[in-house]
Design a protein that fits this description.
Elements (H helix, E strand, L loop, with lengths): L3 H40 L4 H15 L3 H16 L5 H26 L3 H9 L4 H31 L11 H12 L3 H34 L1
Protein name: Ectoine/hydroxyectoine ABC transporter permease subunit EhuD
GO cellular component, one term: ATP-binding cassette (ABC) transporter complex
InterPro entries: AA_ABC_transptr_permease_3TM (IPR010065), ArtM/GltK/GlnP/TcyL/YhdX-like (IPR043429), Ectoine_EhuD (IPR014341), MetI-like (IPR000515), MetI-like_sf (IPR035906)
């Protein structure tokens, strides 16, 4: 049966773990944003070997389970290189690298949505490639895809329980530790589900609000 006294005893531990869950999600999202943009640039490169290699890397990462990638970074890579990666950084890199391949496609759709006339205008103004991307293309390509990026942030947040497999002390591992001590599984796992639901729901509302605001600005 549900025990409220027990709930209030374990809730502080789960809320503390929630901070780690949110933090690793945000850090991984930043990694995914940066690497995703670089992959998008490389995939569009006119240098065919670079473009083909990048597309191969994207397909390989997408078709490999995230759990396997995280295991490789945390357990296998130290055996191959002698470099040990802490669980937090392995989780950030693994989660960020995995979702960077999806964000690269989001960036690609945004870039391809920029009218060809904008590229021609940049050429007519004698802009360099870096100036064209920085001043004309990206400012027009990024705003329309912000809601999609926000949705991927929520997806990444919900994927963090995978990281308990590499001993990262996020909510799921904290709940498992609590259960191993008290042998009561109902309350800890239910609370974890409720916390994920609350944060994800709030984040989805913010994304929807942001999308409406962007649509209103584009409609003016």
């Amino acid at each position: 049966m549900w025990d409220w006294k027990y709930v209030f005893e374990i809730l502080p531990q789960l809320l503390s773990a929630l901070k780690m869950t949110v933090w690793v999600t945000l850090c991984a999202f930043v990694v995914a944003l940066i690497i995703g943009l670089l992959l998008a640039f490389a995939a569009r490169s006119k240098f065919k070997p670079l473009s083909l290699i990048t597309q191969g890397i994207i397909e390989f990462i997408r078709n490999t389970p995230l759990l396997v990638q995280v295991f490789f970074l945390y357990y296998s890579l130290p055996l191959l290189t002698g470099i040990s990666i802490p669980a937090f950084y392995a989780g950030v890199i693994g989660l960020g690298l995995h979702y960077s391949t999806y964000l690269s496609e989001v960036y690609r759709s945004g870039i391809e949505g920029v009218p060809k006339g904008q590229w021609e205008a940049a050429t007519a103004l004698n802009y360099t490639k870096s100036q064209t991307w920085r001043s004309i293309i990206l400012p027009q390509a990024v705003p329309p895809i912000i809601p999609v990026l926000g949705n991927y942030l929520i997806v990444m947040f919900k994927e963090t329980p995978i990281l308990c497999a590499i001993t990262l002390v996020e909510m799921m591992l904290t709940a498992k530790n609590i259960v191993s001590q008290s042998f009561r599984a109902f309350e800890p796992y239910t609370l974890v589900g409720i916390l994920f639901l609350i944060i994800s729901y709030i984040a989805s509302l913010l994304v929807q609000r942001l999308e409406k605001r962007l649509n209103l600005q584009r409609g003016k």
